[in-house]
């Protein structure tokens, strides 16, 4: 995919013997990831969504994910010296931020049922769990700016980006679409008529592809010397973000949502129960009649949407709100209707989050001083936070399920604040020891995501047995009966 290479401010000073004597200490955390135009058999194709892995360049080759390569002299320097030089050039804050997000994801996935207050907001509002997806998208964009700093061939880079996005999309469908399910009753298989097409990895794949194409094809050749010149260089990428935002708002508030119906299965011997939902409105942002759900029902099909809708935890639909629970006696008809939180229209704004992260990465690429970077980051972050809060105040509510504009602004701004704080602590002041676990998790983010969030571990523990389902690995190690 990309490799971390020294940049201009990182060139070594050589002594009379040609040995590398020192690195520029003003840029000792700078990294640049370069996209290779050569074929690479060692790419870990799906890891770019959760972390950027390395590839082969005309002069440099890496074989492990998230290894940062520098210009290390080969005339007598030992392995320890090479490792120290790589660490000096590493942007550790990106790994730490990624690892922290993975840890947050695991926390809310497993503790959200016990502490509903940290689980996803039932509809309007913002909770701890609602930051996970935007943080991942923000990191993908930031990493892409580093990965595509220099390109050998735009066509080859485009082809490889499309291939990676497709592989990530397939992986998401396999893990979240129902190919592996029924953990509790140990049944496996998939009903193609009911498979869920969208999901977390699928959304990341779409956002990654669009952001990658923007970075490959629509950036200027201007030299960046100030914030204004930075905006000018990438002005067409901001035009894309503006067009996507305008398209989302036009569809969300302009589409007419007619009445619709859905059915839920009853006992095998009885006919399914049909529910009718009355709408006939425009510009509705409630659970039942919003354009986001309508687009998914029309294009994907209601049978292919997520069957445990987040709004089932609202007060109208659950007596245990904000947790799932039995339906109240006067529950509206839409409470059990499928709704995909990673649907098509909401993914449009997810792409914008990725483009915001891309701009944060541009600041790393073009500005070398820590202070200048932090100032630029905080200006963008402040604007996003203020805009998000103002939109919510004036009626465009913060809503993760719809991925509203106010939600995008506030969560992208929060990602900017958190990343800036980690950068300041880890890369500027060098406090790495307290974050070593998060750094490790960040290097293995995709693996941890698959094992922890996609039920792979429970499947391995419960899914293989001898003669009877009770004779599984858990019983073998003395857990359960």
UniProtKB/TrEMBL annotation:
<feature type="transmembrane region" description="Helical">
    <location>
        <begin position="238"/>
        <end position="256"/>
    </location>
</feature>
<feature type="transmembrane region" description="Helical">
    <location>
        <begin position="404"/>
        <end position="426"/>
    </location>
</feature>
<keyword id="KW-0812">Transmembrane</keyword>
<feature type="transmembrane region" description="Helical">
    <location>
        <begin position="96"/>
        <end position="119"/>
    </location>
</feature>
<keyword id="KW-0472">Membrane</keyword>
<feature type="transmembrane region" description="Helical">
    <location>
        <begin position="344"/>
        <end position="365"/>
    </location>
</feature>
<feature type="transmembrane region" description="Helical">
    <location>
        <begin position="161"/>
        <end position="180"/>
    </location>
</feature>
<feature type="transmembrane region" description="Helical">
    <location>
        <begin position="131"/>
        <end position="149"/>
    </location>
</feature>
<feature type="compositionally biased region" description="Polar residues">
    <location>
        <begin position="18"/>
        <end position="31"/>
    </location>
</feature>
<feature type="transmembrane region" description="Helical">
    <location>
        <begin position="377"/>
        <end position="398"/>
    </location>
</feature>
<protein>
    <submittedName>
        <fullName>Heparan-alpha-glucosaminide N-acetyltransferase</fullName>
    </submittedName>
</protein>
<dbReference type="InterPro" id="IPR012429">
    <property type="entry name" value="HGSNAT_cat"/>
</dbReference>
<dbReference type="Pfam" id="PF07786">
    <property type="entry name" value="HGSNAT_cat"/>
</dbReference>
<feature type="transmembrane region" description="Helical">
    <location>
        <begin position="446"/>
        <end position="466"/>
    </location>
</feature>
<feature type="transmembrane region" description="Helical">
    <location>
        <begin position="200"/>
        <end position="218"/>
    </location>
</feature>
<feature type="domain" description="Heparan-alpha-glucosaminide N-acetyltransferase catalytic">
    <location>
        <begin position="90"/>
        <end position="214"/>
    </location>
</feature>
<feature type="region of interest" description="Disordered">
    <location>
        <begin position="1"/>
        <end position="42"/>
    </location>
</feature>
<feature type="compositionally biased region" description="Basic and acidic residues">
    <location>
        <begin position="8"/>
        <end position="17"/>
    </location>
</feature>
<keyword id="KW-1133">Transmembrane helix</keyword>
């Amino acid at each position: 995919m990309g490799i971390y290479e020294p940049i201009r401010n990182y060139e070594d000073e050589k002594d009379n013997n040609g040995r590398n004597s020192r690195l520029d200490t003003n840029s000792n955390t700078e990294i640049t990831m370069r996209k290779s135009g050569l074929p690479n058999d060692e790419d870990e194709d799906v890891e770019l969504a959760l972390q950027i892995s390395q590839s082969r360049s005309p002069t440099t080759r890496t074989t492990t994910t998230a290894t940062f390569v520098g210009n290390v002299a080969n005339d007598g320097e030992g392995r320890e010296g090479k490792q120290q030089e790589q660490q000096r050039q590493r942007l550790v804050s990106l790994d730490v931020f990624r690892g922290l997000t993975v840890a947050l994801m695991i926390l809310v996935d497993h503790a959200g049922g016990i502490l509903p207050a940290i689980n996803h907001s039932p509809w309007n509002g913002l909770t701890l769990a609602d930051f996970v997806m935007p943080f991942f998208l923000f990191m993908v964009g930031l990493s892409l700016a580093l990965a595509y700093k220099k390109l050998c061939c735009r066509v080859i880079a485009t082809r490889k980006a499309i291939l990676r996005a497709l592989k990530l999309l397939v992986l998401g469908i396999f893990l979240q679409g129902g190919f592996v399910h029924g953990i509790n009753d140990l049944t496996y298989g998939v009903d193609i008529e009911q498979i869920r097409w969208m999901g977390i990895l699928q959304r990341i794949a779409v956002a990654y592809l669009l952001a990658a194409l923007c970075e490959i094809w629509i950036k200027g050749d201007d030299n960046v010397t100030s914030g204004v010149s930075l905006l000018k260089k990438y002005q067409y990428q901001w035009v894309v973000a503006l067009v996507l935002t305008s398209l989302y708002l036009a569809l969300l508030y302009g589409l007419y949502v007619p009445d619709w119906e859905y059915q839920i299965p009853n006992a095998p011997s009885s006919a399914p129960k049909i529910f009718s939902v009355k709408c006939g409105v425009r510009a509705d942002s409630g659970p039942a009649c919003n354009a986001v759900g309508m687009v998914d029902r029309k294009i994907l099909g209601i049978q292919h949407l997520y069957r445990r809708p987040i709004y089932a935890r609202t007060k109208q639909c659950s007596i245990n709100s904000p947790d799932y629970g039995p339906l109240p006696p006067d529950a509206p008809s839409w409470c059990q209707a499928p709704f995909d939180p990673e649907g098509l229209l909401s993914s449009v704004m997810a792409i914008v989050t990725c483009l915001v992260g891309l701009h944060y990465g541009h600041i790393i690429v073009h500005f070398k001083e820590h202070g200048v970077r932090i100032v630029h980051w905080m200006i963008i972050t402040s604007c996003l936070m203020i805009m998000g809060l103002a939109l919510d105040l004036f009626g465009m509510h913060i809503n993760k399920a719809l991925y509203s504009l106010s939600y995008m602004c506030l969560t992208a701004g929060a990602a900017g604040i958190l990343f800036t704080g980690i950068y300041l602590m880890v890369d500027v002041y060098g406090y790495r020891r307290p974050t070593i676990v998060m750094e490790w998790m960040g290097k293995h983010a995709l693996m941890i995501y698959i094992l922890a969030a996609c039920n792979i571990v429970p499947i391995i523990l419960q899914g293989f047995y001898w003669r009877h389902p009770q004779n599984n690995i858990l019983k073998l190690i003395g857990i359960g009966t």
